[in-house]
Design brief:
This protein is of the alpha+beta class. It has helices spanning 21-36, 44-51, 61-76, 86-97, 107-116, 146-161, 252-265, 267-276, 296-299; strands at residues 2-4, 7-13, 57-58, 122-125, 130-133, 166-170, 173-177, 186-191, 198-204, 208-214, 219-222, 225-228, 244-249, 280-284, 290-293, 300-302. It contains nine helices and 16 strands. It starts with a strand and ends with a strand.
Length: 304
């Protein structure tokens, strides 16, 4: 157990003594953080964001890979997952962290941030392996997907080490690998969005990633209204219609991006999108009703 990516990372492997997979996975989480933490002045993405308007910048292949896949997922989610959302995140960060709760951001500042937070402002020269920004102020933010990306990489490490079963808990992203030891199911709790404890349990039999986005993770109540860190890239404001979205998929990168995107889409559009893409989801609305897509309902056991 260790801290990386702003959360506790807990890895349980069922293996022979002396195996180093858990240490290797933790090391990889920290390596990814050193590249993609946009608030760390020593990170690759921080320095990229700072200088990419001035000149095209050569980026490591892992960065190019994550960026390219993120842009594909942005198209896939019709822009509701947006890796260029950094300027909007910065507008809201002080409010959400409680550093400035006297004023909400000025509407004109929000509108300006929306106009800058566009993926079309990212210019990729694949031949040269370089990326630049078309206008000043653009800023990449991979916070929504880096944990899912890390869990996918962790699965590769487990496979290469010949480990048959493991659990990786990275806060809102949980990966179960292989079949559960000595029982029928991996039992993964789904956080109740309005009180301590869980609202239900997922019973899973094999490798899967469970990504949850919720308005209860980082938020501030101002004048009786909840302002949280999950932003709608089109309105520029925190999402309002859903309390939480859980995506169940074999691909952590996808499940992370989609859980964020569906929070932004809202219930009707979200369910339509998930059904069209044949994705499993659990959506909780403000009346605490639980909505399902795909086979999610058959895997879910409500907490009585």
């Amino acid at each position: 157990r260790d801290i990386a990516m702003d959360t506790f990372i807990e890895i349980t492997t069922y293996h022979q003594p002396g195996d180093t997979a858990a240490e290797e996975i933790l090391k990889d989480f920290k390596y990814l953080e050193s590249i993609f933490n946009r608030y760390d002045e020593n990170s690759v993405v921080y320095n990229f964001n700072k200088h990419a308007f001035e000149k095209p910048i050569s980026i490591p292949s892992i960065f190019e890979n994550l960026l390219t896949e993120s842009l594909k997922l942005s198209d896939y989610t019709e822009g509701h997952f947006n890796p260029a959302i950094g300027p909007l995140v910065d507008v809201w960060r002080k409010v959400i962290k409680g550093e400035d709760i006297s004023n909400l951001p000025d509407i004109n500042i929000v509108k300006e941030a929306i106009s800058i937070s566009k993926t079309e402002n990212i210019i990729i020269n694949e031949r040269k392996g370089q990326v630049s920004f078309a206008i000043p102020g653009v800023s990449l933010d991979f916070g929504a997907v880096v944990k899912g990306f890390a869990v996918d990489r962790a699965f590769e490490i487990l496979k290469n080490k010949g480990i048959e079963r493991a659990v990786i808990n990275a806060g809102g992203t949980i990966g179960v690998y292989g079949s559960p030891p000595g029982r029928k199911y991996w039992r993964i709790g789904i956080q109740h969005p309005r009180k301590e404890g869980i609202i239900g349990v997922l019973n899973l039999t094999s490798t899967m990633v469970i990504s949850t986005s919720g308005d209860y993770e980082r938020y501030k109540i101002i004048d009786g209204k909840r302002y949280h860190h999950l932003l709608n890239p089109f309105t520029g404001y925190p999402t309002e219609e859903l309390l939480s979205v859980t995506i169940i998929n074999k691909n952590g990168f996808l499940s992370d991006a989609v859980s964020t995107a569906v929070m932004s889409m809202g219930l009707e559009k979200g369910i339509e999108f998930l059904t069209q893409k044949s994705l499993m989801a659990i959506i909780i609305t403000p009346d605490l009703k639980i909505h399902f897509t795909g086979d999610a309902e058959s895997l879910f056991q409500p907490e009585l």
